[in-house]
Write the structure tokens for this entry.
Amino acid sequence: MEDLQFLIDHGLSRGADFVEVRYQKRSRTMANVKKGELDSATSGVLEGYGIRALKNGSWGFAVTSLLDRATLLHKVEEAVRLAVSSAPAKTTKSELATAKATKIKAVAEVKDDPKDHSLEEKIKLVLELDKFITEYSNEIASTSVRYDENLVEKRYINSEGSDCYLFDVKPELFMMVIAKKGDVMTEVFEGVCRTGGWEIFKTKDPQAMAKRACERAVRLLSAKVVPSGTHVAILDPELVGLLSHEAIGHTVEADLVISGTAATGKIGEKVASDMVTLVDDGTIPWCAGWVPFDDEGVEGKKTVVIEKGVLKSYLHSRETAAKFNVEPTGNSRAWNYRDIPLIRMRATYIEAGDWDREEIIQDTKDGLVLFGSGSGQADSNAEFMFGVQEACKIHNGEIGESFRGVTISGSAYDVLKSVDALGKDFSLDLGRGYCGKMQIAKVDAGGPTVRCKMLFGGV
Amino acid sequence: MKMEVSIIAEKAVRYAQKLGADAAEAYVLKQKSIMVHVEQGAISNESVQEIGGVGIRIIRDNACGFSHIDKLAEKKVKQIVENAYHIAKASIPDPNNILPHPKPFPKAEGIYDKRIVDFQVENAVEMTKNMLDAALNYDQRVRADMGGIEIRVEEEALANTEGVNVVEEGTFMGVFIWGLARENGEVTSSAGEEGYSRQLDLNVEEIGTTFAEKAVKQFGAKKIDSFEGTVILDFAPAAELIGGTLAFGVRSDNVQRYASPLKGKIGSELAVPQLNVIDDGLLEGGMMTKTFDDEGNPRKRTSILEKGVLKNFLFDTYTSKKEGTESTGNASRRRLGLFFVPSLPFESPPQLIPSNLIIKSGDRSREQLIEEVDKGVLVGRFSGNTELSNGNFSGSVKQGFLIENGEIKHPLIGTMISGNSYELMKNISGISREFKILESRGIPSIQSPIIRAEKMKITGKT
């Protein structure tokens, strides 16, 4: 590996207390088909350095996409100069939690390298899926299918002796189906993204996804709108993932905790039903939330956020860990070299319980069983909302009528307190799409089947 | 003297021709930006970034390929010209893949301010501090989670094999502040305020104060019972629920793909006669204003809704070729907003989106809109989903208030609204004189008034 120590030495010689150098090269290939037309086939590379220097508790950040030695030395100086010059305007001093020097080399386990699959093959994959969807029924009005492949090479070194390397591969497939009958139009999404190679399409078959999406889109055309109000809800693993991420996860990101969220000051308190153990985990190598080390060189850990209903930990960067006097959790992440690391989640999930999914349904007198997630948002007061693709009525343990156009809402911790059944089934399958918080980030989320109470607002 | 970006673009196009491209286009961007970030009530970071990049589109046997890189060096640019050429070879032929010919360009006003060019990082830090101080001094219960300022100077060039060869300089400024208020364990719903300009003329103190005011007004939020009644959509939710839905619906690509519900509806009455919407690529000082769009067609003004009647769809070169009409100059490489964005314009091929979408202001003041309401809800922010293919929306009311007998009663929690944007447009009962320029989902620049609508479904406690 290239010797970058000279950059660290240069920063220290210019008076920095701490210097870190991040190199990142992101190569991205995409093919996007919309209703039979290849909308775009693209490839691109973003490669450069992000350099941070800390001096008397003040950060400076410099960025370059030029890779030559002279530019890099100049950028180190710029980072130190910015740290010094902006110090007077900074009312709070940044401190870093002590972290032992990490030496990690992590390479994504790829069985079937996407590089061995030609661009022609990738275009063919999306075109064929598009064709399958279009021909599924004459009620399919429109389609969109996207292949998106991210290869990321990272190097992280700092003045405390950390030196980490990552090679990450994440292929992604996403599809949208729009069906139409008279004035009714329905939209359904499916997708998959994991760490790995072309083999991820064997674990989740694209054609089966397309078929499921088509069936649902067409079925919902004749479905009624869900009755508004509070109902008992049975969530599938995908929705449990969205709940864990949006409703709970964001409230325990330590940067937001400091400003004040529903989780502020609640460590050690009962915040959920005894059944609930919620985790944010960077160590699962196959999922989209695999983060073996973060962009501050902290090793990815399994962080238990809620244990048997009691709030145990927030998600930290080195800086927030110092403020809370705890160990950093490896959640400080940046999307590109030009981005400053922020506290982000990784794979966020609720641990499985001991009910059979069928048993939960049979045990429910009146309620709704929910399938498939839309997009979600959360508020600082823990009020969240997210879209659900389909809801089916349950009466005396029997699944009945389907409803469409469902949005669920609630106060996250009230919902967690209402959890009274957890399934044995478990999956992490929310790798498609991105989480947005100033920058985008790849995250994953999931859990078992969960029964709880929620507010429904139908269209 | 020719600008560097222009020379790079021309060279890239020539190299593509040499490789055997039937048509080629090079987009070159050089930008310098100063960013100051606020986290947890304090300035946390600032950076100066100088980035240059190139995006190449190549058409060969009617098939199109695109490639990009964040470098301007000749060798690197040649590499991606080759990449784009190979992608075009692997790609699928489509006779509508063409590039525009040169046309007369209009003049774009108010898009360059020398004061922004001369702005230094120290000035940006001071400005951020002023915004923050204004917010935090307004009320000690206010917490600013996040915020920032981005000041940007851009040089863009676009050249293609059909003879388009244009260059433009522009300046941009964007600020935002986001947070909440907190007292005795009560956390309010998140509040935010933002401002955008092409000139160095934003009043950051006012932005800070407005944010703080919004946050503290949410203390004591209460649930209400469900009812059907009046809804007043503040600037942002009006932009999202009316602008966002229309923006998707009038894109000719969505119409051609049957994803838009507006297919065949030109000339139809979509809304009350008070609603007028235009796409104005030449709005003076508009955030998306340029002389040319991102594939080299002139920017234009296009009427979308005139007195509630649907007038036009928006076109780019591809969709206009398909339709046998003219481009409306709506190709853009900026899709995810203009500030603090995860991707820069050279990273994407042009896509069809509105330029500056304008929902025209009405004849009421904000106060009048409220005074005339018997029972209703004021929506400060909408946190929900819209199915763009049909206009159905449903979500939580944020920064909301109950209105009774013409007066604001109390802030709201646990309240949802649902409906359909197209029906809402037919139930509009008032439009404000005041307006604001915003970024909204899928629209980098939208100007919106406050809009009042009747017969809306409001779901509260049950």
Observations:
- The radius of gyration of chain B is 23 Å.
- Chain B has two domains: 4-216, 227-459.
- Chain B touches chain A through 87 residues (CB under 8 Å).
- Chain B is about 25% helix and 40% strand.
